Automatic annotation (TrEMBL):
Role according to the record: Responsible for synthesis of pseudouridine from uracil-65 in transfer RNAs.
Listed EC numbers: 5.4.99.26
Annotated PROSITE patterns: PSI_RLU
Phylogenetic classification of the source organism: Bacteria, Pseudomonadati, Pseudomonadota, Gammaproteobacteria, Pseudomonadales
Keywords: Isomerase, tRNA processing
Catalyzed reactions: uridine(65) in tRNA = pseudouridine(65) in tRNA
InterPro entries (UniProt xref): PsdUridine_synth_cat_dom_sf, PsdUridine_synth_RluA-like_CS, PsdUridine_synth_RsuA/RluA, RluA_PseudoU_synthase
Any one GO molecular-function label of the UniProt entry: RNA binding
A GO BP entry: tRNA processing
UniProt domain Pseudouridine synthase RsuA/RluA-like: residue ranges: 16-175
Record-linked Pfam families: PseudoU_synth_2
Protein name: tRNA pseudouridine synthase C
Gene3D superfamilies reported for this sequence: Pseudouridine synthase (3.30.2350.10)
Length: 249
């Protein structure tokens, strides 16, 4: 594997951490759901690390792009992993959704666990508290009749999950009737198909754009930002005056 072939973009590195941008469509590591896959962010991060082992501190779903943190040793992975679980790490996402949500809001809606093992899907799973805060950054109305109205409305929202449930952001936005564009499981098929056909690709419009935490060794506050990748920004062109946070003007 050569450096030019590596789909990860390095955002930050020191003796404890390697932080990268993961493109949409790439699994973080091997999964029982996708046994046939042979490429993972973990192996590409190892290549960036000179072939030395790295430890994923958290995960991003395969269709989600954005900031992904790897630890370069077990102790760092354990320390930062505990900080993640205790809510000491702040995550910010950018998403494009159907409709116009309120200017800001809080989604306090418990979610049932979604097991990856298909053998457990018939077994009732526990319901856990889940909290997401959101802020609407931009709105647009396009002259296209996708459902029963002559025009269609969309918004760009900033999402800040305060808990870490599986598919929390996608499920919460569906819960308030503003599903994320490109979400095959929780979204609206007609809208997903329209954008897939218009832009030639049907990606999930969800990107992890900012991560804030205390460095596991020094305790210094860290704030790592990354603008969405080009496939995300292409679709955001329906918002003519909007510039994504952390994107150069």
């Amino acid at each position: 594997m050569t450096f030019e072939q590596n789909p990860l973009t390095e955002l930050y590195r020191d003796s404890q951490l390697l932080v990268v941008h993961k493109p949409a469509g790439l699994l973080v590591h091997r999964s029982p759901i996708d046994r046939h896959e042979t490429e993972f962010a973990l192996q590409y991060a190892r290549a960036l690390n000179g072939g030395e082992h790295v430890y994923p501190v958290h995960r991003l779903d395969r269709p989600t792009s954005g900031i992904l943190v790897f630890a370069r040793d077990r102790d760092t992975a354990r320390t930062l992993g505990l900080a993640m679980m205790s809510g000491e790490v702040s995550k910010t996402y950018l998403a494009m959704v159907r409709g116009w949500p309120a200017e800001c809001g809080e989604i306090d809606h418990p979610l049932r666990d979604e097991p990856e093992d298909r053998r457990l899907r018939g077994v009732e799973q526990p319901v856990r508290e889940a909290l997401t805060r959101y802020r609407t950054l931009a709105t647009a109305e396009i002259p296209v009749a996708i459902e029963k109205y002559p025009t269609s409305r969309y918004a760009v929202v900033e999402l800040c999950p305060k808990t870490g449930r599986k598919h929390q952001l996608r499920r919460h936005m569906k819960h308030i009737h503003h599903p994320i564009i490109g979400d095959a499981n929780h979204g609206r098929g007609r809208h997903n198909r329209y954008f897939a056909e218009r832009f030639g690709q049907g990606r999930l419009m969800l990107a992890a754009t900012r991560l804030e935490f205390r460095h596991p060794a020094s305790g210094e506050p860290m704030s790592i930002c990354a603008p969405p990748e080009s496939s995300f920004l292409d679709v955001l062109s329906v918002f003519p005056d909007f510039i994504a946070p952390d994107q150069p003007e």
